[in-house]
Amino acid sequence: MALLVALAPARADAIASARSAYAHGDYQKAVRQLTPLALRGDAQAQAMLGFMYENGFGAPKVYDAAVDLYIQAANAGIPFAQAMLGLMYDKGHGVPQDVVLAYKWMNIAAAQARSSQRDYCLRLRNAIASKMSMNQIAQGQAYARSWTLAHVQAGRAAPRCSSRRAKRCAGLFDQEALAVGGGRR
C-alpha cells in the first residue's frame, strides 16, 4: 500500500514533466517520459503518447501505434483518447474507415467529456453523423450505449459516467443527434 501511495506522486510528476516538455516543444523528452508510463498501462500517458505518434511529434508518425495507444486509453475511460480514436476511424488512419465506430467513440467522448469539451465533441460527432444513414446512427448509438453500460458496471467509466449518472451517459444524447439532422436515409 505504501508503494502505491509513493508511486502516485511520481506518476503525476512524470505526466506534468511530459506536458511541460511538450508545451516547450521538446517532443522527444515528452516521448521518453511518457513511454514507460504508457507501457505500464497509464491511460493518460497512452492518450498523450498516441497523439504524439499520430502527429509525428518526437516520434515517427505511425498511425497504427497511435490507434493501439488510443484504444487502450479509450477503453480506460479517457475522453480525449475516445475522441481521437473516433477521428481515426472517421479518417481511416491506422484502421479501416468506419463511420459507425467513429460515431460510437465520438458519442462516448461527448458523454464523458468535461462540459468545456463536450460541445466540441458533439460538433465532431454531428459532423460524422451527417455522413451516415439513420440505421448507421442507430447502430453507433447502440454500440456506444453497450460500451458505456459495460464500463459503468465494471467501474471503468469516467467519473462523469458513474453508476449514479449511468442512465444519462447511456442515453448519449440520442435525441439531440436526431434533432441536429444527423443522417441520410
UniProtKB/TrEMBL annotation:
Top-level taxon of origin: Bacteria
SMART domains: SEL1
PANTHER family: ERAD-ASSOCIATED E3 UBIQUITIN-PROTEIN LIGASE COMPONENT HRD3, SEL-1-LIKE PROTEIN
UniProt protein name: Sel1 repeat family protein
Organism (species): Bradyrhizobium barranii subsp. barranii
